[in-house]
Design a protein that fits this description.
Blueprint lengths: L4 H14 L7 H6 L9 E11 L4 E10 L3 E5 L9 E6 L4 E11 L2 E9 L4 H20 L9
Antiparallel strand pairs: 1-2, 1-4, 2-3, 3-6, 4-5, 5-6
Amino acid sequence: MAAGFGCQIEPALTNMCHSRQLAATISEVKAVPEAKRSERARSLLGAKIIFNNRMSIIDCVVKNISSSGAKLALASSLAVPGEFELHVPQKGFTCNARKVWQDNEGIGVEFGQPVESNSAENARLREYIRVLTNRLAGLGHDPGSPA
């Protein structure tokens, strides 16, 4: 099973928290909603939102990330379900995620449990099989029959 993303970036976040620029007073921390109490690191990582029994994939970009969640940018016209898998290939990271908020700039997600690292690859392969099956059917071949 893949390690949680928070485990991979925790040292960097700890260093950021200790810097004077990012240090917050206790009163400021109390004013921040629970969902945003983790320090966020800017990023520009390609990612995939995977849902519908791993048959649907939406490309997105991780704009900032913390040990508990992230902000994702995607085409504003796309509908994102409330719960999905988030796969960040550059980090070898896949976890369950829950949409917390959405606006014109993107969506905020909270990380859940890590998912086995090969699940995103399996989703990509299932999607490829579905596309090829549809192409065969469009050519008049029965994809279920032997060649």
